[in-house]
Fold:
Amino acid sequence: MSNRNEKNVPTLGFLTVVEHTPGALFGGLLVLNLAGRPLEFHCTAPVKANRAQEILYGPTLRPYLYGEQIGGALIAKMKTPALAICTDQEHVLALRDQSEMPVVLVPPTCSEEAAASEHSAGYRIDAAQVAVAPPHIRSFRLGQYEVAVGPQHAADQQTLEGLWQEKLIDLDLTEPFTRIREAIEEAHGVGK
Amino acid sequence: MTELADINSLDLKIKTEVLALGWNPALTRAPQITITSETFRVARPKAVSLTCQGPSVPVKSFVFPEAPAWLQSLEKKAAAKRAVADDASSEGEPPSKPKPRKITHIRPPGDVIKLEDRLYYLLQPSLESLVSSGALEFPFEPFPYQFEGIAFLYPRHAAVMADEMGLGKTMQSISTMRMLLRAGEIRSVLLVCPKPLVSNWKREFNLWAPEVPISVIEGDAAKRSWLWRDNQTPVKIANYELMMRDQELVGEEGGLHFDLVVLDEAQRIKNSTSTTAEIVRGIPRTRSWALTGTPIENSTDDLVGVFEFLAPGLLTKGMDIKSMSSTAGEYIIRRTKDLVMTDMPPRLYRDAQLYLSPAQQEAYEIAEKEGVVRLEDMGQELTVQHVFELVLRLKQICNFDPLTGESAKMEQLKADLEEVAASGKKAILFSQWTRTIQEIRKHVESFGVLEYHGKVPHKQREGVIDQFKNDPSKHVILMSYGAGSVGLNLQFCEYVFLFDRWWNPAIEDQAINRAHRIGAAGAVTISRYLAVGTIEERINKVLEEKRELFNALFSETGQPAKIGFSKDEIFGLFDLRSPKGPIRLAA
Structure:
């Protein structure tokens, strides 16, 4: 379908997870070129932790579900690797452990939360994710945004800063998550 | 003395016998030990293994086509913009956090079925981000509702933009055409508008889409034929009158095809049997849009006429308002100033109820009495045209007495205009007749008067508007409803006078909205002159009912008591009866 020269197109991935009914998680990954144009969209079927996982994973359940299960499944479908994966959910940072791509947390802005609640009434963002800057993660500035990487991958900060400088990335890092939520709603016909 | 004790000896030899109990051998015998083994090991417990690793997650994937050109240009501009921003910020404060703002996405219409296509629209960048990033440049930042209008039009193959006048239908449609052209989704556009508005559209295209080449279809037959077939300019502007002449060129047999045909003032095709309506319906095209602030002028049949162009058969005459509203809802976008422009200055209505001068009153009574008698005498020959003539005659007397030239309205107008001129403001006056306008001019010349109506040649009209706008000595422009009610931007006027009333509230609204539109500096005062106890009062009553009809259809609530200014209602203005009973319509 696409006639682009994929090897030459630098892209950014935007990955988020939305919770519809309690426990039912939908993951979405939107791959944009640096102009904000959609090149790929991948979304998961609903994922729900079973009772055993809930007990045994304990506090690591969310990072496992968001990062490993959902994030892992989504990036496996990407046609070409992106420069980085942006997420608005801290738990997705766990994806970095199994991916070569830097994973960067972009805390949602107030407008994004408002837009999400306006358009996706059926979804809710995990309350823990709304924190602007998780206190236990060292944040830094990337373009106009205050972002963070996983504590085990602090070196990604330098990589990302280099990429942003080299590619002159000026993309809105929060707006694409609204698109993903709406697309998930559309694809699954839920939350309406 | 001590007594000696007797001692007796007894033989204690007791015979003993040993009984053999058998114990002794038993004692000498070595004990025999029996060992009993008890096992303490229990059976190995059964272990149940739980798989923590969940099953692999099914993923649905979509890949999208090449970027629209207007987005590709962003990549180049982004670099330049970033460089400028870097320069600016290198000396000062670090960049601040992006400000929260409203986001508008293109939403797929209901008739786009394929999920991939629907997602393609949904996943496009927000319109606001296109503007802020420099991918699309606008001379002014559009209002949020204008972004919504663009997002509505963009994916639609059939659409009615029915925003109230003054909200920027022109800008929204031009911007959407521009995006579609730059996206390569359309390549040829035909815009049809009333002839007086052609120059206005040219101006607006230059403002909102300066890079899009346009051509105006005009000139003699040979030139027009060449212009129609010229495929170098993606946008062609033609007027309705010209479509009649070039019917063969634009019809099926002409061999032309347009990706988009836009009808401005689309109420022009409300009568689906009119030649204009038939011609525009015959233009081969892929997308059809209608722009109109008055999709319903008289009755819901007007909307049916417009839809015959957009989606033939979707609406039918006689449909009840509720089902019409729900069927057409997907195709129509209508916003009113009250809803979207909360910061628009208010419209202040001032109904001036005036008593006719004695001479006018006398002339009016005679004319009405004689007129009604004449109509009644016509009996079954009476047509709506005859009644209409009487109405017009009476309305003219309400403006000026035909013999003496007395006019209660004129006296009021002079007083009002003095105030307007003294405060340095400007006013628009509307009348139904050019003759009335010329009469008014005689009385208000001292206020700096200009005229804009059907008798002013087209070539001069633009100059008139420019002069009115720029010449501080010109305080009032006299307009006819027909020529001045559409497409003109006169938002620098704060006063509107309706010297007489039009038959249709929508036309009146259009007239008022020449002044009350985006950019209006302050409140717009609308003075509606009404002669008490005359036909004007009766007409006003029907106009109010029509207004209710319009509101009922577009608010989807309630049902109006009446629909339109029907023939019966025109007859009803005089309560006409013949000796044989109520007069039946011959027309």
In short: Residues 6-187 of chain A form one domain. DSSP finds five helices and seven strands in chain A. The helical segments of chain A are 51-57, 61-75, 110-119, 156-167, 175-188. Confidence is low (pLDDT under 50) at residues 1-6, 110-131 of chain A.
